[in-house]
Every structure is written in C-alpha cells, then in structure tokens.
C-alpha cells in the first residue's frame, strides 16, 4: 500500500496541489493513468469541471487523469485503476455515494493491492476507520459513517489550533475530538494544512514542516514532529 | 406555541443562561416546573451534573428543574411537562437519542400544545426541519437527520462570519451552508451568539442586539435587523 494522505489540496498563496507536486512525481512515477473520484464536490461545479481542475493540477506530472463519472462501470474502473486520487469537498456526500454505489470495498481492495493513492481533505478522511472526525456539515445522510479503514485511526483534516483570543462559544476542534473520544475509543490524528501522511505498507510518516496533534483516548493530546513515524502499538 | 430559540446558552464574560434571564422570567412566568433534556451533552459530565447546571442557571427564575433522565417513562414526562428546556452539546448525540427513544413526536406535540420551550445551541437546531446545518462533529450515527420541524427553516447556531484575514483553507460557515443548499431547498437562519428567535405561534421575531444572516436557496445571503419579524412566505 502506497498512499499520500494530505490535510488539504491547496495551501495559502499557492495553486491547487502545487505544494504536493514534488512528492506526487515520485509517488506516481510508475503509472501513466490516474483515476480521479470527484464525488465530494457539492459546490456548484460539475464532476467534469472538478476533474478538469485535478487534471490541470496534476499536469506537471505528465499523467492522464480521468474522472470516475466518465466510466460506465465504476467498480471495474476502480478495480483496474493504475492509481487513484480522491479529492476534497464534503465528506458526507463522498461517503454516501461510495456506499450507495457499492464502491467502498472495491476501493479498499485496489489500494491494498498496490494502486498508489492520493487523498486530500475528504479524500483523506475516508482513509481512516470512520468519517466521524470530519469538520463538514451533514448536508446529506450517508447509509453509514464507516470508511476505508486502511489506517487504524481517524484523520482530522484541516486541523486548527484553538484561537486563544476568541470570545466565540462554539466548540474548538480539540473539544469536538474529545467529545468523539468520550464515545469512541479511536485514535485521531489532527493534520495541519500543509502536512501529509506518507503511508508505505505498514510504515506511516508525517511529512513536511508541521507537527501533528495526536489524540489518544484517555490521554492528553500531544504533538509529533515532522518526519516522525506514527506507531500507536 | 411559545419558544425561545437561542444561538448559545452562554455569552462571553457572563455565566450560564445569564443574558437570557430577563426573557426567561417572562417566558416561564406561568409555570412552576421545567423539564430539562440533557441528552446533547457528551463532554465527560453526567446527565445529573448537566441538570444541576441548568438548575443553577435558572435559579433566579425560581422554578423547579428536573432532568428527563430522572423519569422512568420519558414519553409521559414530556407529554405532561409544563415547560421544556433542551440544552446544548452535540446535535448528533441529541437527535440519535430522541429518535431511538421515540421522543421526537411527543416533544413536537407537547410544544405544539403550548408548553413553553427553551432551546440553546443543539436544542435550537432541533427546532428546525433537519439537523443538517449543525456545526457539530458526527460523533454518533443517528437513525435520521430529521428534527422537530416546528420552524419551516433550519437554524445555524453560533453563526460565525468569515475571518477575512484567515489563510486557513477549511470551508467558511457561509460556504458550508451554501453547499447544503446546493442539495436541499431549505432556508437557513444564521443566528449569531447573543441572539435568539422568539416564536409566538406563527410570529417569529429576532431578539437582542445582533442582526441575523439569512440564506434563501438560490439568493445572495442577506442580513435582517434586530426585532425584525421573520417571514419567508
């Protein structure tokens, strides 16, 4: 299994996927065709437009990108994909469609069998055990919150530190994750924007220049440094 | 129907429910007993502790407060309640329990029949058509996102304006609400902290000193002034 699990597709002051390009050139070095799954996007743009955006973002890598919606048989398209990229948007919308089209298992199998995977934001959330640590609004009702389970923890993408000066009474991200852990014994990795996890079979490293915040049930949250190996056993 | 639908239980620099007390003295003037529903709270405190907090907050009104968890028959307790207060916490957790215990209909009926209602945060979200515009994390899986439907729109509690200086790439609240409306033709009222809706039968007014942000599907979002009457027909 080879995967890049990124907190965000885009960092401030840079274009779509730009900060990931050197990594992606290596990650996708042995493939020609990348299958793009545009299902998370609800924001007024079509699957065609979103796929066009992915194509443009990945252009410097010189790969062919096709959207899953272009295929008659999406199961077959995933099963035979050389490489897979699941883009961001709304995690509820993405998970609903993957379940309803029966694609969760075939996606897991394809990645397990070695198709290099790229996830950004919602596409990273689904790599964990469940989508229950998403920041997204429940704009649709998925048949289940279970996701790929290719990691034995959950991701919180776009992890944000509490604003200590804020007078706002809505819960902080850390409070929300602790509420989740009051009811679910699942480790959560808070990935700051600009960070990604590099998954190489069972070895998982935190990449780029940011620490990540780790929430283990029943423990105080702590930071891990860039280049740390994640190992919770 | 008489209801106070508040964005938050607590405003900065003030104690639990304090800013609402003058309003609640009038709202609950004709009742002696208030039934408190503590089900939204996941954060390490028990239903007893949360009910104690509600009791303390409402003490200046001189009412008796009992938690729904203290009753053997919660349906009967709701049906015979003089007044009802549903506190904040996690909306997924609240909605899951109300559905699973079969309490959504009996709650709607009691409020419809005239029991004065107070909702704060999650307790306000459930007054709308669905819980789909909550800001909360999906820490549990409810059997449905449908809620009381005593308003013909949805609430977004703790409404927060975009931080124009932010470099964070997570979606703004406004973006999330628009994503919801790409898929659901439902009006959303963004209630800023410190605001509440006063519902008096079919008349709904925005109370206190803040404007509210109104999202009608297919239109630009707009503001309504304090004391405005909400009328979307």
CATH class of chain A: Alpha Beta
Strand order of the largest sheet of chain A: 3-2-4-5-1-8-9
> H/E order of the elements of chain A?
EHEHEHEHHEHEHEEEEE
- The CA-CA distance between the termini of chain A, in Å, is 19 Å
- Number of DSSP helices of chain A? 7
CATH topology of chain A: Rossmann fold
**Form type of chain A:** globular
Question: Can you describe what's shown?
Answer:
Chains A, B: Keywords: Hydrolase, Protease, Serine protease. Chains A, B: This is Alpha-aspartyl dipeptidase PepE. Chains A, B: Belongs to the peptidase S51 family. Chains A, B: GO terms for molecular function: serine-type peptidase activity. Chains A, B: InterPro entries: Class_I_gatase-like, Peptidase_S51. Two copies of one chain form a homodimer. The first copy, chain A, is of the alpha/beta class and 233 residues long. Chain A has one domain: Class I glutamine amidotransferase (GATase) domain (Rossmann fold, 3-Layer(aba) Sandwich), CATH 3.40.50. Helix content of chain A is 25%, strand content 21%. The first copy, chain A, has seven helices and eleven strands. A seven-stranded mixed sheet of chain A has the order 3-2-4-5-1-8-9. Chain A has a four-stranded mixed sheet with strand order 6-7-10-11. In chain A, a hairpin with a 2-residue loop joins strand 8 and strand 9 (203-207). The longest helix of chain A is centred in the first third of the chain and has 12 residues, at 47-58. The model of chain A has no long low-confidence stretch (mean pLDDT 96). The interface between A and B is large, with 43 and 43 residues.
């Amino acid at each position: 299994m080879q995967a890049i699990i990124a907190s965000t597709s885009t960092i401030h002051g840079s274009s779509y996927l730009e900060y990931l390009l050197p990594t992606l050139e290596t990650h996708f070095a042995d493939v020609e065709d990348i299958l793009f799954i545009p299902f998370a996007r609800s924001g007024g743009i079509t699957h065609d437009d979103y796929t066009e955006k992915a194509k443009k973002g990945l252009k410097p890598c010189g790969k062919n990108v096709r959207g899953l919606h272009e295929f008659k048989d999406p199961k077959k398209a995933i099963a035979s994909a050389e490489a897979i990229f699941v883009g961001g948007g709304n995690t509820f919308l993405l998970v609903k469609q993957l379940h309803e089209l029966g694609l969760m298992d075939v996606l897991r199998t394809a990645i397990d069998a070695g198709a290099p995977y790229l996830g950004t934001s919602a596409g990273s959330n689904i790599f964990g055990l469940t989508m229950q640590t998403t920041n997204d609004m429940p704009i649709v009702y998925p048949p289940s919150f279970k996701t790929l389970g290719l990691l034995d923890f959950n991701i919180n993408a776009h992890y944000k530190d509490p604003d200590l000066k804020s007078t706002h009474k809505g819960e902080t991200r850390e409070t929300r994750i602790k509420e989740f852990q009051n009811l679910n014994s699942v480790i959560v990795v808070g990935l700051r924007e600009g960070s990604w996890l590099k998954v190489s079979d069972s070895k998982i490293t935190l990449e780029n220049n940011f620490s990540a915040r780790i929430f283990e049930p029943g423990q105080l949250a702590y930071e891990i440094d860039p280049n740390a190996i994640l190992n919770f056993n």
